[in-house]
Amino acid sequence: MEVTPQDLRQVSAISEVPEEQLLWLIQNSHVERIPVGGFIFTKGDPIDKLYILLEGEVDIKIEQNGNYKLVAKVHKNGISGSLPYSRATTAIGYGEAVRECKVLVMSKEHFKEMTTSFYELAEAFVHEMTSRTREFAKSNVQAEKMMALGKLSAGLAHELNNPASAMARGAKELKKHLGNVPEKFKRVISIKATPEQIDVINDVLFDKLTHRPENNMGLMERTEKEDALEQWLEEHGVENAYELTETLLDFCMDAKAMEKIYEATGDTNFPSAIEWIENVLTTEKMVDEIQEAAQRISDLVASVKSYTHMDSAPERQPTDIRTGIKSTLTMLNHKLKQKKITIEKEFDQDLPHPKIMVSEINQVWTNLIDNAIDAMNPGGKLQVRSRKDGNFVKTEIIDNGKGIPEAHLNTIFDPFFTTKAIGEGTGMGLEVVQRIINQHQGEIKVTSKPGETKFIVCLPIA
């Protein structure tokens, strides 16, 4: 006998099975030897045999766009292939021997006798199947989450870098700017002005600071006004007029406003007064830019907090899904801007709040929106709609990309199916999406044609 019950006792999954059942297993199996580079199964083979690897090592690989990706390894005394009650029918990958293998092979046709007459052996294999399924799902969901996290973190770093750089640059410029204030202040306090004259200057200046006007001038209009203001200032004794016009026009202080200040200060004091006004406005502008950058960072952090839902217990709770969708769009904003994609959002104002696991559903939005962005050419259009539909909240994510081939529509939710290259997708994204929706007793559907791919997610309200 080439294989003995003692050999099978080394296989942890069946080590406690009674010896007569192990003998039955041996008698209804045969041994195959697989050389290095050989296959115990290939893509498309029927999953109708149970394999126990007594010696050697096997790599389980899948093909993605002509490349191969390692998804699992079967080591010595490991089990692979079909198991009792398994519903898998066709292999989606390859089992390649990377060390010379000795494999005990049993045909699926013996499973019925096993489950009816050899309880402990069948129980051991069923336990192995459930453990395998659990670990498989856990590891691949984790892989998908890590890939999604990598995309989001790269985008978030990019989004944070811009306002952070703006803050650092603004702070540096502000410090440099304030270094010139003492000299300007010296000229200002040398002005002999009456309280009435000072009031005029203050009224003009603080009106612009308090009610900063919206500057909507076009390039041509602004250029003309800059030239006119520069000329007017030079004619009224301001030597560095060119340096002042940009900031003055940012606050819509044109020649008309200058006339009022000139009349209040007189020919001698006007240059120092207008220089001081420009200095105050420049400081205000720099502080505004730093504040705007800081607010942008604060908004991004708020979006991350909302997206991860990190301040809430990991349990289902009534939630406004619009918040999660908007946070996801913020997290993916770098990709949207990169491809110049326009977004159309259409949400019911009185949208019900379904009871959901927030971070899980946010992963659904991430995968669907990220896929939509990848499918579109630059300048594409993304539509996101949510509304009440009977006892469900119905969300549609629509892109105007090239579409999904009809032959693929029935397989896009299968594990490892992807049209992306290795490293760009795990092939688990939509499988994870479907699993999450199923866990919420919801439904996901897809329709596609060139120029319109629509994913429809329905979540029960109660």
Structure explained in plain terms:
Helices cover 50% and strands 20% of the residues. With 462 residues, it is of the alpha+beta class. Strands 1, 2, 3, 4, 5 and 6 form a 6-stranded antiparallel beta sheet that branches. It has a 5-stranded mixed beta sheet with strand order 8-10-11-13-12, with helices on one face. The longest helix has 60 residues, at 119-178. The radius of gyration is 35 Å and the shape is elongated. It starts with a helix and ends with a strand.
Summarize the entry for a quick read.
With 462 residues, this protein is of the alpha+beta class. Helix content is 50%, strand content 20%. Helix 3 (111-117) crosses helix 4 and helix 5 runs antiparallel to helix 9.
Q: With helices defined by DSSP (H or I, 4 residues minimum), what is the helix count?
A: 13
| Alpha carbon gyration radius | 35 Å
End-to-end span in angstroms?
Answer: 61 Å
Overall 3D form:
elongated
Strand content is 15-25%
Q: Segments where pLDDT lies below 50 for 5+ residues?
A: 421-428
Largest sheet: 6 strands, antiparallel
**What is the residue-mean pLDDT, rounded to a whole number?**
81
Q: Let me know the number of strands.
A: 13
Which structural class best describes the helix and strand composition?
A: alpha+beta
In helices, the fraction of residues equals 40-55%
Order of helices and strands: HHEEEEEEHHHHHHHEHHEEHEEHEE
